[in-house]
Design brief:
42% of the residues lie in helices and 21% in strands. It has 242 residues and is an alpha+beta fold.
Length: 242
């Protein structure tokens, strides 16, 4: 008898991205359980992603060429390029939709006054038993009046046909600020709340880290403790083959 193929891989140690931690903070109890389940049991099937759209937008913002016409042209190119299978065609369509929508709102977006640098993947940070992963699409930097280097980060969010919940945007930017301030601090630099921002590519709304971000991050640390405690007892999704 042929052994069934695995559908998911188990992540033994609790870990979560900044994106999903923000979602978790604003979610109902039922949704929170679903988020932890999704982080612990990673599907082996290919997942639809928006990487091409995110790279295009990040590059355009950094180079100062994020104008509607150029974005529309790129969206058309992605939509019509050759796909190897139906999944690739669906991915192309999703990325084109993302860019097309962003082209409609880009003119209204006012980014903070800061130097725009390429994004990077930071080492995972252990927060109350949970590895928290941060990979901003861009880094932001400025020199303040005291000649101190200030650092921040820019992250994109997008969901087709749906604006980002402002609470989620605030949580995500607060998490970025908290990590840069407390765990990923660079020598000679200080994290700057005003340049830790999340941009909703659907609505064009920009969410800087809120004024009470220090308190919010403390609450997120407490949530990480809860996630760490719940992790071992979260069962796999229905029908999953581990």
């Amino acid at each position: 008898m042929t052994k069934p193929e695995k559908t998911h891989v188990v992540v033994p140690e609790a870990e979560i991205t900044v994106r999903y931690l923000a979602d978790y903070m604003a979610a109902s109890e039922r949704r929170r359980r679903s988020i932890i389940e999704g982080c612990k049991y990673r599907p082996l099937a290919r997942l639809l992603q928006h990487k091409e759209a995110q790279i295009t937008i990040s590059s355009a913002i950094q180079s100062g060429t994020a104008d509607p016409k150029a974005l529309e042209t790129k969206a058309d190119y992605i939509r019509n390029k050759l796909a190897t299978d139906d999944f690739d065609a669906l991915t192309n369509e999703a990325n084109a939709d993302y860019l097309e929508r962003f082209s409609e709102v880009v003119a209204s977006i006012k980014l903070p006054n800061a130097e725009i640098l390429p994004g990077k993947k930071f080492p995972a940070v252990k927060v109350h038993g949970v590895k928290v992963k941060l990979k901003p699409h861009l880094l932001l930097a400025r020199i303040d009046k005291k000649n101190v280097q200030r650092t921040g980060a820019f992250m994109l969010r997008y969901a087709k046909g749906k604006p980002l919940d402002p609470n989620v945007g605030g949580y995500q930017s607060a998490a970025v600020f908290g990590l840069l301030k407390n765990h990923l601090k660079e020598e000679g630099a200080e994290a700057d709340r005003s340049i830790c921002v999340t941009l909703d590519a659907f609505s064009g709304e920009l969410y800087p880290a809120p004024g009470n971000s220090v308190t919010i991050f403390e609450n997120m640390k407490a949530a990480c403790q809860t996630i760490s405690e719940r992790w071992p007892n979260i069962p796999p999704p229905k029908g999953a083959i581990i």
